């Protein structure tokens, strides 16, 4: 039975419902969307015994303030904004219980960009193309705002699960990013390709869920051949005519006409998503086989954790 879980006192900076996105509709021009940091989102769901694709609340840099209207179990993962219950700091990456009337809030930013709040039993949100993921830019859902009511089917869990530190990621302000070769290397000059891996890029503050804009003063292009627009992948790195790259993120468009030098390995996309504005990053090549190996390893960990959590129910 659906009931009110939270009353929203403050919506935060850009809080939305996100799951793993709406796959299978790019050919119709519908973006995938979904969680910016899918690894942290899935871990939040595992902590509360949900399916890994259940929608969570995704908060960006400034978390919301929520009043519980039912006893609930929840988990908070991803970026650390100093979560608090009734004004007292509570741990992340663990199962928490809240009583009716308890207030969840957030304090000062500590690290990362996107935090995830999962509630046992799941959250009610409108589904578009088989996904609850919000993409406000194209009219699929909206941000969580002050005064909103969030509903769901809350469960109060008996067993508390806490992850081992080896499972919990950290979010440094300087990262190394693995990429696989893109399809347009032949139109990108060799001197640029060489410089691309030698330079350190800065994440621009005007980046968003659609794309992360990078900048380096020491890299440029005199000219670059245009390409036919084609389908673009999550993590694809487009090179603009001025030589500055853009990493395509969760709300990326479905096609693009800028050449792509490479694609961020799936297991590194979460690290990129959690990089703060003005953060630094450098790139290095890996093979498709190595990227697949890393993905299989991460997927194996998630499956094992999910199975173990469900045995505790």
Q: What does the secondary structure layout of this molecule look like, with pairings?
A:
Layout lengths: L2 E8 L5 E3 L19 H10 L8 E5 L4 E4 L3 E9 L2 E3 L2 E2 L6 E3 L4 E4 L4 E9 L29 E4 L21 E8 L8 H9 L2 E3 L7 E5 L14 E2 L4 E4 L5 E4 L6 E2 L3 E5 L1 H8 L6 E6 L2 H24 L2
Parallel strand pairs: 12-20
Antiparallel strand pairs: 1-4, 1-11, 2-3, 3-10, 4-9, 5-8, 5-10, 6-7, 6-9, 12-19, 13-14, 13-20, 14-17, 15-18, 16-17, 16-19
Helix pairs in contact: 1-4
Structural commentary:
It is a single chain. With 313 residues, this protein is α+β, with helices and mostly antiparallel strands. The protein has 2 domains: 3-170, no CATH class; 174-293, Cyclophilin-like (Cyclophilin). The protein is 16% helix and 30% strand. It has 4 helices and 20 strands. The chain has a 7-stranded mixed β-barrel with strand order 12-19-16-17-14-13-20. A hairpin with a 2-residue loop joins strand 6 and strand 7. Helix 1 runs parallel beside helix 4 (288-311). The longest helix is centred in the last third of the chain and has 24 residues, at 288-311. The radius of gyration is 20 Å and the shape is elongated. The two termini are 19 Å apart. The model has no long low-confidence stretch (mean pLDDT 95).
């Amino acid at each position: 039975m659906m009931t009110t879980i939270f009353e929203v006192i403050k919506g935060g900076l850009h809080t939305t419902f996100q799951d793993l996105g709406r796959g299978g509709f790019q050919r119709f021009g519908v973006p995938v969307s979904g969680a910016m940091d899918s690894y942290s989102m899935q871990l939040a769901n595992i902590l509360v015994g949900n399916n890994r694709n259940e929608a969570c609340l995704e908060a960006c840099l400034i978390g919301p303030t929520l009043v519980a209207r039912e006893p609930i179990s929840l988990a908070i993962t991803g970026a650390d904004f100093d979560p608090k219950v009734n004004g007292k700091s509570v741990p992340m990456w663990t199962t928490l219980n809240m009583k009716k009337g308890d207030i969840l809030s957030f304090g000062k930013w500590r690290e990362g960009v996107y935090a995830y709040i999962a509630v046992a039993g799941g959250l009610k949100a409108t589904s578009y193309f088989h996904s609850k993921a919000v993409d406000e830019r194209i009219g699929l859902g909206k941000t969580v705002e002050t005064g909103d009511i969030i509903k769901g089917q809350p469960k109060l869990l008996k067993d508390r699960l806490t992850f081992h530190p080896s499972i919990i990621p950290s979010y440094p302000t300087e990262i190394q990013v693995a990429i696989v070769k893109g399809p347009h290397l032949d139109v990108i000059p060799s001197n640029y390709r060489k410089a691309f891996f030698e330079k350190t890029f800065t994440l621009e503050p005007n980046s968003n869920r659609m794309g992360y804009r990078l900048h380096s003063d020491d890299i440029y292009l005199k000219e670059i051949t245009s390409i036919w627009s084609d389908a673009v992948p999550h993590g694809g790195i487009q090179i603009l005519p001025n030589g500055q790259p853009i990493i395509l993120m969760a709300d990326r468009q479905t096609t693009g006409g800028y050449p792509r030098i490479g694609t961020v390995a799936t297991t590194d996309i979460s690290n990129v998503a959690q990089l703060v504005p003005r953060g630094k990053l450098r790139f290095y090549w890996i093979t498709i086989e190595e990227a697949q190996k890393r993905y299989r390893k991460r997927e194996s960990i998630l499956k094992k954790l999910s199975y173990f959590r469900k045995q505790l129910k």
